[in-house]
Amino acid sequence: MLTNAINKTRFCAGISDISDSYSGFIIDELGVIHDGVKLFDGVAECLMHLKERKKHVIILSNSGRRAKKNAERLRGFGITEEHYNDIITSGEITWQGLNDQNDGYFKEIGKKCVIISRGEDDCSIVDGLDVEVVDDPKQASFLLIAGTDAPHKTIEDYEPILKQCARYNLKAICANPDDIGVMGSVNVFGPGTLAARYKDFGGIVEYIGKPHSMIFQYCIRLLQEQGVYPGQTVVIGDAMAHDILGGSMVNIDTCLVKRGLHYSVFKTCENPAEVDRMLNILARQYNNVHPNYLVEILEWGKALPDRKHKKRGPKSSKA
Fold it and tell me: Can you give the pLDDT at residue 313?
């Protein structure tokens, strides 16, 4: 029998419901701020409200591109540096790891790689590095999976190069663990799906990005430099597998956006009880982790007068 999730997840009309409880906001990009084609309504206003209240806003993305590239993309949507404090991407973390090559999986990984990215000529993730991009896996020391050209290409289109890289035992770095991405109104397969296929062929993969702790720990260090600790921080995202599970794994409160990756699950719900049931179903798929909050979209909104939930404050731990 499913348990009732009302006491586990607080329903909110907007971010204004929780803004007073937190100083740090780690906000997912694709599926929350925009859909890859257009900016979602209310996002720019919501981000400005947070900045006006001196909140520290980090936009966190599993993009395989560097942070500068994502900043340029956001400017195209009308989101500028006045709307946030930092942009962190898994591509940026990957770039720094490849630049140093002195820690963990990056240690002495090599100087030649095969790249799979969005756009055959997009090698921006290694721009400025002492790393050479090669076409022949036989000449490479590792494989870098940074993006896909879905929906224009299928998984089968990538299988020949994946098989060749596996044949030469190339270690792979997946700079974007997303299995599924949002492109307008369509869900498409992400780099994480190619990484999983590479493992099917016998390849070894290291994932950089959500929900893995490395990228969240990087955000935590940035926030702590501003005097903001995990217990004063909330992660806002649309993916249970990456945002909600990842935030929970580093002991940070989380807020799920309904109109994102899981919208098909919620759109038929006609009342709060049905939403609770769907949340329980989702949670069972992800280690029984529930988001602390649920919002329709990333908008400022107004408080819900008819929902009687116990107000949840930030955790007291600063660890």
Answer: 47
